[in-house]
DNA sequence: CAGTTCTCACCTAGGTGTAAAATT
DNA sequence: AATTTTACACCTAGGTGAGAACTG
C-alpha cells in the first residue's frame, strides 16, 4: 500500500509492552465505479460478500511503549490483495470498494489471542484510531491521471516512469532540494477519537494516549 | 561474514525469554602472514593492540526459548570492519589476525546491561559456545584460490563471477541438483563445552542446553 | 467493454569479487 | 613489496506502472 500510513505515538507507558497492528474495514456497504467525465466515484450496487478478516501486526511488535514512542511507526510493508484464497498473510479486500485503515494499540497483557487471521480483540487493553483522510477506494487499474502522477512522483520505486522532460514548477523544484521535507502532520488525541466515536470513556491508563498521522510522501 | 554461522538450539526453557548474541575473540596474541609456496599461515609478529569490543545481538532478540528452538539461528547479517572508528555497529577486527566467533545465550532476567558496545556479561544467566572449526584469519584480500572459489561458488551474491564454462565434477553436478542439501552438522552439548573449557559446572537450569553448528553453505 | 491478470522494463537497495590506485 | 582502499560491473531480491492479453 502506497502511500504508507505513518503514525507518531505519545502517551504510552514507557515500560509496558505493546503490539501495534493495522486492519482495514469497509466504509459502507456499496460497490463503486469511477465516472471519468465527472471525476467522481459513484455507487454501483451493493458490496460483495465480506472476506476473511486479516490483521497486519507491525513487524516491530512486541516492543515497549518507550520504543514505539521514539520512532515514526510506518506501515510501508503492509500488502493488499484481492485474492480471497491468499496464503501470504496479505490483507484481503474487494476491488472497487471503499475502505478505512485503522491503527490498534494493544497492551501485551491483553493480547492472548492476537493473530493475523482473527479480528483484533476489543476491550480495556486495546485502543483503536482512524483518520478519515485515509479512506481510499480499491482498484486493479488506476482510474484517473492524478493518482497515477502521485504514485509515480512520490514512490521511489516508480522513478523509472518519471517524465524528467516535464519541468517541475518553481515551487516543486525548490521543494525537491529539501530532501528532509515532510508534509504537515495532523494530531488526534484519544479524547478526539472517543468523541468522534461517541465512545463511553476510556480507562485512566490510556487517558494521555495521542497518535499523530502523516502520509509517507 | 560469509559463510555465515548457523546454529540449532535445544534445551532452552520454552517460556523463558532469551537474547542470542555473537562476539569474535582473538585466538592468540599473534599477527600472521600467508606463505604462498607452503600454503600456510605463519606467525609474523605480535598482535596489534586490542580494539573496542563489539557484540552482535541477533536481530530476532528478544524471543522465547520456544521461538529460538523452532528455527535455525543464522548470523548472516553480521558485518566485520577493520575501521576502529566504525560507527555502523559492525564488529571491529584487525586484519591478518586469527579469531574465533562465540555464540552467547543470555537469559532475559540476567541481561540488564547487554549492549552492542560492551562485553557480554558472564555469570549464571549466560552460556557461551565456541566451535573450533569456525576459527578464521582476517584479510583485506584473499590469499589463496581455494577460499576465492568457496566464496564465489557458495555465495549467491557472487554468482556473476562463477565460471559456468568450467564444468563441475560428476559429484558436484549431482549435488547441485539437490537444492535443499546442507552439509552435516556437528552437535556440541553444554557438557562437552564445560569439559573443553574446564569450567566448574553449570546450574541445573542449563544442564540440557545443546547447540548445533552448521555452515551456511 | 469494463475490469482483471500477466509479463516486462526499470527502478531501489544492497551484497559480491576484480583490478587499478593508493598507502605504508 | 605487501597490504589496503576505491570504483565498478554484476549479481540477488523485490517494489513500480505500462501495456498486452485475458475474462465474463
Shape-level CATH architecture of the domain at 6-137 in chain A: Sandwich
Low-pLDDT windows of residues of chain A: 165-185, 188-207
Mean pLDDT of chain A: 80
Oligomer: homodimer
Largest sheet of chain A: 6 strands, antiparallel
List the helices and strands and how they pair.
2 copies of one chain form a homodimer.
Chain A lengths: L4 E6 L6 E10 L3 E6 L4 E7 L9 E2 L5 E2 H5 L3 E2 L5 E2 L9 E2 L5 E10 L18 E5 L5 E2 L7 H10 L15 H8 L8 E4 H8 L12 E6 L2
Parallel strand pairs in A: 8-9
Antiparallel strand pairs in A: 1-7, 1-14, 2-5, 2-6, 2-10, 3-4, 10-11, 10-12, 13-14
The structure holds a DNA duplex (24 and 24 nucleotides).
List the defining traits of the structure above.
homodimer, 217 residues, alpha+beta, Immunoglobulin-like, 4-stranded antiparallel β-sheet, 14 strands, DNA-binding, transcription regulation (chains A, B)
Notes on the protein architecture:
Chains A, B: One of its GO terms (biological process) is cell fate specification. Chains A, B: Its main location: nucleus. The structure is a homodimer of 217-residue chains. Chain A starts with a strand and ends with a strand. Chain A has four helices and 14 strands. Chain A is globular, with a radius of gyration of 19 Å. Helices cover 14% and strands 30% of the residues of chain A. In chain A, the strands form four sheets. In chain A, strands 2, 5, 6, 10, 11 and 12 form a six-stranded antiparallel beta sheet that branches. Chain A has helices at residues 65-69, 145-154, 170-177, 190-197; strands spanning 5-10, 17-26, 30-35, 40-46, 56-57, 63-64, 73-74, 80-81, 91-92, 98-107, 126-130, 136-137, 186-189, 210-215. Chain A is of the alpha+beta class and 217 residues long. The model of chain A is unreliable at 165-185 and 188-207 (pLDDT under 50). Chain A has a domain at 6-137: Sandwich (Immunoglobulin-like), CATH 2.60.40. In chain A, strand 3 and strand 4 form a beta hairpin. The chains hardly touch. The first copy, chain A, binds a DNA duplex (24 and 24 nucleotides) through helix 2.
Amino acid at each position: 500500500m502506497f502511500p504508507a500510513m505513518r503514525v507518531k505515538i505519545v502517551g504510552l507507558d514507557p515500560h509496558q509492552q505493546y503490539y501495534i497492528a493495522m486492519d482495514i474495514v469497509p466504509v459502507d456497504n456499496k460497490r463503486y465505479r469511477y465516472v471519468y467525465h465527472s471525476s467522481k466515484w459513484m455507487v454501483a450496487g451493493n458490496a460483495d460478500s465480506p472476506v476473511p478478516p486479516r490483521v497486519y501486526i507491525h513487524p516491530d511488535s512486541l516492543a515497549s511503549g518507550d520504543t514505539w514512542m521514539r520512532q515514526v511507526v510506518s506501515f510501508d510493508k503492509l500488502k493488499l490483495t484481492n485474492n480471497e484464497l491468499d496464503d501470504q498473510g496479505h490483507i484481503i479486500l474487494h476491488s472497487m470498494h471503499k475502505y478505512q485503515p485503522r491503527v490498534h494499540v494493544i497492551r501485551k497483557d491483553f493480547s492472548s489471542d492476537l493473530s493475523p487471521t482473527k479480528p483484533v480483540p476489543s476491550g480495556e487493553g486495546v485502543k483503536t484510531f482512524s483518520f478519515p483522510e485515509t479512506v481510499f477506494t480499491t482498484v486493479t487499474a488506476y482510474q484517473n491521471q492524478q493518482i497515477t502522477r502521485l504514485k509515480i512522483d512520490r514512490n521511489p520505486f516508480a522513478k523509472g516512469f518519471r517524465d524528467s522532460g516535464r519541468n517541475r514548477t518553481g515551487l516543486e523544484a525548490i521543494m525537491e532540494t529539501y530532501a528532509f521535507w515532510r508534509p504537515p502532520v495532523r494530531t488526534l488525541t484519544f479524547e478526539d477519537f472517543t468523541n468522534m466515536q461517541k465512545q463511553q470513556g476510556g480507562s485512566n491508563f490510556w487517558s494521555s494516549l495521542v497518535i499523530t498521522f502523516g502520509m509517507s510522501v
